[in-house]
Amino acid sequence: MRIISGIHKGRRIQAPKNLPVRPTTDMAKEALFNILRHQIEIHDARVLELFAGSGNMSYEFCSRGASSSLAVDKHAACTSFIKKTATDLDLNIDVVKADVFSFLSKHKGKYDLIFADPPYGFSDEEFLKVPELIFQQELLDTDGMLIVEHSKHSDLSTHSYFKDSRRYGGTVFSFFYHENEEE
């Protein structure tokens, strides 16, 4: 995987082979950030990365100027790798080793961007539990955006805060955010 843009543009990061991860492809990541640059300000954003795996998205957001990222994953090898890489790259990324659903049900905080990349084998109900908990716990700033990455076999459009989805090969990004009061 590589960081596509920002202060670490072009930097390759090699995750250990034993990590239970499926990093977002460079093509899908580039397409996502092309969408985001027209919809939300990344510079100085507070980011929450759920099911962080290798930390791929936290590195990208912070390289592009996000003020901080909190990466959450339940695997110790993943959280250790993210901590080491964040230190090596001098990026403001905090790491929490926790089950994402337990974390979401207890965590207090506000984020401008939340990116979740659950295992593709989740059922639609499990995928939908992610935005449900985020909006229930009021973790997303009123002008913020939640992005859930999933396979083309999942449909998250039934959630009340769902707004759009974009497909890149077998990867789909579903976007959720608060209603604009002017709409």
Overall description:
By secondary structure, this protein is an alpha/beta fold. Helices cover 29% and strands 26% of the residues. The protein contains 5 helices and 7 strands. The chain has a 7-stranded mixed beta sheet with strand order 3-2-1-4-5-7-6, with helices on both faces. The chain is globular, with a radius of gyration of 15 Å. The model has no long low-confidence stretch (mean pLDDT 93). The N and C termini lie far apart (39 Å). Strand 6 and strand 7 form a beta hairpin.
Radius of gyration: 15 Å
Category from helices, strands and their pairing: alpha/beta
Tell me about the largest β-sheet. 7 strands, mixed
Mean pLDDT: 93
> Got a strand count?
7
| Content of β-strand | 25-35%
Distance between the termini: 39 Å
Low-confidence stretches: none
Strand order of the largest sheet: 3-2-1-4-5-7-6
**Which shape, going by the Cα principal axes?**
globular
